TrEMBL record:
Tree of life domain: Eukaryota
GO molecular function: ATP binding; inositol 3-kinase activity
Reactions that this protein is recorded to catalyse: myo-inositol + ATP = 1D-myo-inositol 3-phosphate + ADP + H(+)
Alphabetical list of InterPro entries matching this protein: Carboh/pur_kinase_PfkB_CS, PfkB_Carbo_kinase, PfkB_dom, Ribokinase-like
Protein name: Inositol 3-kinase
Gene3D superfamilies to which the protein is assigned, alphabetical: 3.40.1190.20
UniProt enzyme class: transferase
One Pfam family hit: PfkB
The protein's Enzyme Commission number: 2.7.1.64
Domain Carbohydrate kinase PfkB: from-to ranges: 235-309
Length: 324
C-alpha cells in the first residue's frame, strides 16, 4: 500500500508523540489509560424502543483493545489498560464484560443515558443516521480521578462532555501519547438534551491540540474540528462510515479503504475504529495500516447491535492485518 510509508515518515519527521507509539513494536505490553464514561443506550425506531444496550465509547474501546492489543502470552485474559469511567447506582451493565473487567467509579448522580432515534429513511454514507439525545448525565471525570502514574498511551473518549479540559491536560501529562475522539471535545446539548456541536477552536481544548498525537472525528464532526487548522497541530483522522477513513497531517493526507459490512446498528463504530487504530499503533504498524485495523473493527461494530462479540475467525483477519 503506497500510502503506508508517506504518513509515517511525515509523522516521524514531526518528531512528536506519534513516534512513541510507533516505536513499541515487539516490545513488552504497554499500559494504557482510557478515560470516558460507560452509559446506557436506548435505541428507538419509528417511536418504539427496539433495543437497550451498554454504551459509552469506553465500553466499545475496551472491547476492541482486549481483542486486539499486543500482550504477553500468559496475559490472554485482559490487555493492560485502565478505564476511568463514572456511572450511577442505576448502572445496568456492571456484569457485562467491559465494566466487569474494569469497573467504573460510582457516583450519586445517575448513569449517563442516551436515546438514539434512528431515521427510517436510508441514510447516505455521510449523513447522520440517528438523532442523539442525552437524557441523563453522570458527573464529569476530574483530574484527581486519574491514577497517579505514567502510561504508554491514553484514549480520551468522552460521550457527554465528561472529559474536562483539565482532565485531558492531566492525561497528556501522564501519557506518552494521547489519542482523542473529537466527540469528547465538541459535543454540546440543547435544553432538550439533543446533541449538537461547537467549534473546537472556541473550546478550551483547542490549545491542547499540539500535545495530542491523533484526533479522530466523524465526517459529521469534521467541520467543527476545522481539519485544515487541526492537521497543523496533530494528525487528524476523519471516519467516513462505509467509505472508510482519511488521515490528514501537516503536508499530506491518505485515504484508507473500508471493509464491507452489513450495518445493523451504527453505534460504537467510531469508538471501535479508534481502539482498532490504537491497537494497530501498539503493534508497531504505520498509521495508515493501523487505520486499516480501525476500519476492520468499525465494520465489525456496525454488524452487531451494541458492544460486539468477536468470533475467533474475525480475529484471524485482525491477525492477518497486523502480521502481513
Ligand atoms: N456501513 C459500514 N460499512 C463498513 N464499515 C463501516 C460502516 N460504518 C462504519 N464503518 C467503519 O467504522 C468507522 C467509523 O464509522 P463512522 O464514520 O460512522 O463513525 P461515527 O459516526 O463516529 O460512529 P458512531 O458515532 O456511531 O460511533 C468507519 O471509518 C469505517 O471504518
Ligand atoms: O454508546 C454510544 C457510543 O459511545 C457513541 O460513540 C456515542 O456517540 C454515543 O453518545 C453513545 O451513546
Amino acid at each position: 500500500m503506497p500510502l503506508a510509508a508517506e504518513p509515517v515518515e511525515a509523522l516521524e519527521e514531526g518528531g512528536n508523540q506519534q513516534q512513541l507509539l510507533l516505536a513499541t513494536k515487539g516490545g513488552p505490553a504497554l499500559e494504557g489509560l482510557v478515560v470516558g464514561s460507560y452509559c446506557h443506550d436506548v435505541l428507538i425506531r419509528g417511536g418504539r424502543v427496539v433495543g437497550e444496550t451498554l454504551g459509552g465509547a469506553a465500553a466499545f474501546v475496551s472491547n476492541v483493545l482486549d481483542a486486539a492489543s499486543p500482550r504477553e502470552e500468559e496475559e490472554q485474559e485482559a490487555a493492560p489498560f485502565v478505564v476511568v469511567s463514572k456511572v450511577g447506582r442505576d448502572f445496568a451493565y456492571a456484569s457485562a464484560p467491559a465494566p466487569a473487567r474494569r469497573p467504573p467509579l460510582l457516583c450519586a448522580s445517575p448513569t449517563t443515558s442516551f436515546h438514539a432515534q434512528f431515521s427510517e429513511a436510508a441514510a447516505s454514507a455521510h449523513a447522520p443516521d440517528r438523532e442523539l439525545r442525552r437524557v441523563r448525565a453522570c458527573d464529569p471525570i476530574y483530574p484527581a480521578d486519574l491514577p497517579d502514574r505514567r502510561f504508554a498511551y491514553g484514549l480520551a473518549v468522552g460521550v457527554a462532555g465528561e472529559v474536562l479540559p483539565e482532565t485531558l491536560e492531566r492525561m497528556i501529562r501522564l501519557c506518552r501519547a494521547v489519542l482523542v475522539d473529537a466527540q469528547a471535545l465538541i459535543r454540546a446539548f440543547d435544553a432538550d438534551g439533543a446533541v449538537c456541536h461547537v467549534s473546537l477552536e472556541d473550546t478550551p481544548y483547542a490549545r491542547l491540540l499540539p500535545r495530542v498525537a491523533f484526533l479522530k472525528a466523524s465526517s459529521e464532526e469534521a467541520p467543527y474540528v476545522g481539519v485544515e487548522t487541526a492537521r497543523r497541530r496533530c494528525c487528524v483522522i476523519v471516519t467516513e462510515g462505509r467509505d472508510g477513513c482519511r488521515l490528514f497531517w501537516d503536508g499530506g493526507e491518505a485515504r484508507v479503504a473500508p471493509f464491507p459490512a452489513v450495518q445493523v446498528d451504527p453505534t460504537g463504530a467510531g469508538d471501535s475504529f479508534l481502539a482498532g487504530f490504537a491497537a494497530g499503533l501498539l503493534w508497531g504498524l504505520p498509521a495508515t495500516d493501523a487505520a486499516l485495523l480501525g476500519n476492520f473493527f468499525g465494520a465489525a461494530a456496525v454488524s452487531q447491535v451494541g458492544v460486539p462479540t468477536f468470533h475467533p475467525k474475525m480475529l484471524q483477519t485482525c491477525d492477518y492485518i497486523v502480521k502481513s
